[in-house]
Amino acid sequence: MSDSAHSQPHLLPQSQSLHAHKKGDAKHSHSKETANQNLLLIALILTLGFAGVEATAAYFAGSLALISDAGHMVTDAAALGLALLAQMIARRPPSAKHSFGFGRAEALAAFVNGIAMLALVAWIVGEALTRFFTPHQVDGLTVSIVAAVGLLMNILVAWVLSHDRKSVNTRAALVHVMGDLLGSVGALVAGLVIQFTGWMPVDALLSIFVSLLILKSTFSILRESYHFLMEGVPLHIDYLQVGSDLKKIPGVLAVHDLHVWEMTPSFPALIGHIEIEKMQDWPEIMARINEMLLDQHGIDHVTLQPEIGVDTDTDTGTDTGTDTDADAEIASPAKPKVDVPPIKKAEEVVAAQAQSSHQSNTFYVDCISPDGPHQMAYHVWGDPSNPVLMCVHGLTRRGSDFTKLAQAMCDQYYVVCPDIVGRGDSDHLRNPMLYAVPQYVADIDCLVKALGVKQIDWFGTSMGGLIGMVYASMPNNPIRRMLINDVGPTIEPEAIKRLGAYVGQPFAFAQRAQALSRLNTICATFGEHTPEEWEIYNGPMLIQKDGLWLMHYDPNIAVPFASVNPVMAKVGEMALWHAFKQIHIPMLIVRGGDSDLLSAKTVARMCKDNAYLRSIEIPGVGHAPAFVKAEQIALAKEFFS
């Protein structure tokens, strides 16, 4: 499994979405949402009830104005029902497939309502024009009475809905009701004119007049909901001014990849990259940015990635990222230089690079331990000139775990997946007590130096997450952002007991199918997978030796794991919490919803202790999500994009 290798706990905190929120984010309480739904329900009952009465009266009276008003009300009932359904959907919590939740359902309902209103207006106008040439007999008294009652009812419904003017969805429904109200006024005037003068064309004329009046509000709703659905910059926010204000923050060198949009109505969000001189200044700079964005632009959901800026000023006077253009490319980030390590012969490297980027190549890096040198294998995908994504596996796993993820990411990254020493194609250590995080971190540092890069992104599953946390807490480390998969400073006792039941225990089968079946059972917590997915994920874990199928790793990796006592475990946990608090880079922690290793409580504490951390929970998965499913890979791609 993607297990943690050590006594130090490694579960991560959980939250409802990919992004943790600050105080100002929760603008809509559940009680207010329930109240809004009640308003829509009351309006729906009143409108639908009277629509039947008015439709019947319109049929017997023969009035187009009354028919149009009845038609308005039937459409309004549908609009109110759609608005009510949208608000119910919008309250659903975020999920692995919809990390921002379902708040956009309200805007979608508003857009559909607007389109329906345009269709209704077109029909009424068309019908009215035909009546100018073929006048119909209208019962003025019936029209007047029903229209008067309808007017009072529509005033009541409009008053009910006016209590929630902030929701574009409710306002879209209110436009329908206002159209009804105007329709009732028109029908009442038409009825009175016909009753006292007998002039029948007034019925069609007022129907056209009322229809044209409601077009303005309909177009306004359509424009606003369309702009929102297309992720446009919120209408009340000046995008260029936001970029300009960010550049004025002390310590900010440049801004690029800046995007401002609304995740849900009235909930603006901002993401972007900020170039700074010193990474240790980032917490103070981020605090200034948050304060400015909230006070001056009303933006309180902010996700920014800090980067070490590169001074590109030249004698020609080129300014470093001082212009904000329509694409938000305020500055272009400098790409880190990545060199292929000279581990293999030059002709082998050339041949490897000529292969498809979606196929892996294996290299080796020389490392050192207190007992002497050893080699660590690592597998790579993609173009070596791309930024590096380092993917590090769990306790009993190997680099091949990330095959599907690497194939999905290798167009943008040079994906590097090491076999941590004692696993896969890497050497075994003579002293099993060296199978611990300090040695693993030292080996990774050797690999980074061999790659010749200044910065890397990190994906760490279980033990790989622990290695990443320790590495990222060290001064001058190269990690610029990190995804931690189902591990944290505290590891639950149940998980430690489960790991001890199979790590390093006898595992030998005469048939590969039997070995794979057993391994699939051990890894059941990773989630449901097809036989093909299990083969891709667990197949490389098996090796054949002396006619038997065995696990790929050195059984002695369990020695330090089994030697830990409660006091040592507590000391290790405290050290990990201290290290975690020193990390000042963007982090995403992913928790399996049923994980026995990373508790929701630990995730919550991690989010509280480190403002750079965001979290997401994947339901129906234990320890740890395998990231072979498309929806899980999409989460990683979103974070690293």
Structural notes for this entry:
This protein has 641 residues and is of the alpha/beta class. The strands form three sheets. Strands 4-5-7-6-8-9-12-13 form an eight-stranded mixed β-sheet, sandwiched between helices. Strand 10 and strand 11 form a beta hairpin. Helix 2 packs antiparallel against helix 3 and helix 5 packs antiparallel against helix 6. The two termini are 27 Å apart.
- Span between N and C termini? 27 Å
Compute the CA-based radius of gyration: 32 Å
Mean pLDDT across every amino acid position:
77
Count of extended strands: 13
Overall, the morphology is elongated
Q: What class do helices, strands and sheet pairing give?
A: alpha/beta
Low-confidence stretches: 1-33, 311-357
Strand order of the largest sheet: 4-5-7-6-8-9-12-13
Total helices: the number is 19
Percent of residues in beta strands?
5-15%
Identify the quaternary structure here.
Answer: single chain
Biggest sheet descriptor: 8 strands, mixed
Helix % is 40-55%
Set out the fold topology:
Blueprint: H1 30-61, H2 64-90, H3 104-133, H4 140-161, H5 168-197, H6 201-229, H7 239-247, E1 252-264, E2 267-276, H8 282-297, E3 301-308, H9 346-354, E4 361-369, E5 372-381, E6 388-392, H10 403-409, E7 414-418, H11 437-451, E8 456-461, H12 463-472, E9 479-485, H13 493-500, H14 512-522, H15 531-538, E10 542-545, E11 548-551, H16 558-562, H17 566-581, E12 587-592, H18 600-609, E13 613-618, H19 630-640
Parallel strand pairs: 2-3, 6-7, 6-8, 8-9, 9-12, 12-13
Antiparallel strand pairs: 1-2, 4-5, 5-7, 10-11
